[in-house]
Amino acid sequence: MLEVPSTDDLTDDTLSDLSAKFETASAGEIVEWAVERFHPHLCLTASMTDAVLIDVATKVEPAIEVVFIDTGYHFPETLATLEDVRRRYGLNLRIMTVPHTPVPLWQSDPANCCTAAKVFQLERALVGKLAWMSGLRREESSTRREAAIVSRDRRGLVKVNPLANWTDLDVEGYVADHDVPVNPLVCKGYPSIGCWPCTRPVTQGEDVRAGRWSGLDKTECGLHDELLR
Ligand code: SF4
Predict the structure, then answer these.
(1) How far is the CA of 113 from the centre of ligand 1 (A)?
(2) What are the pocket residues of ligand 1 if the criterion is a CB atom closer than 6 Å to any ligand atom?
(3) pLDDT at 229 over 70
(4) Closest Cα partner for 95 from 108, 78, 107?
(5) 187 has catalytic annotation
């Protein structure tokens, strides 16, 4: 049986020190640390806006588990990007599917739709894991400005955001330099892409995530709970 590595040494203070140290590390170095510490008890969640973190992470560990939560409400372009990325990288892909409901949850129960369609699926994906990674970046919105590179989530798992301090220009540069797949909706004014009922294009000067749940008093779906503390 696979031995589960101990994380007893990773106190909150240690994680905070690591996070500060990683401010000057490359995303690849941060992923290397996470892979050395946690793989295979580690996964990466992807929204398929672009494949930057997937490109960085699979260069470190090609077999890293990539989780995509298929809410059932994605744009066709997002599902096409998922397939492109899966083929390009030969991903160890785990698609979390949401039980079908006769009336879409975003219509019948919009207040709980994200919890049922996203957060519950993430909970399932994280069973047996010690840590997970996301491509969350501080520049995306005001709610993400304080995001740490390494922290602990409410489950007690280690959360790693290797791109936390990347700017939009950093992402554009990496995409160009490494020919990384990008969701075609990005070029149509959707710099942050979620489910189609809850995503609109943004206008110049708006936050990257201004098109998510536009008009509602909501900025996060609840996946990144460490932002809400
Ligand atoms: S983003 Fe909208 S459609 Fe998608 S899970 Fe959340 S509420 Fe439902």
Answers:
(1) 5
(2) 71, 73, 105-106, 110, 113-114, 117-118, 194-195, 197-198, 221
(3) no
(4) 78
(5) no
Q: Sort residue 80 into left (φ over 0), alpha (ψ -120 to 50) or beta.
A: alpha
Phi-psi region of 65 (alpha: psi -120 to 50; beta: other; left: phi over 0): beta
Distance from C-alpha of 187 to C-alpha of 124, rounded to nearest angstrom: 33
The span from the CA of 143 to the CA of 210, in Å, is 11
pTM here is 0.93
Q: Would you state the pLDDT for residue 181?
A: 98
How many Å lie between the centroid of ligand 1 and the Cα of residue 85? 23
The rounded Å distance from CA 185 to ligand 1 centre is 18
Q: What are phi and psi of 150, to 5 degrees?
A: -130, 135
Tokens at 182, concatenated: 């990008």
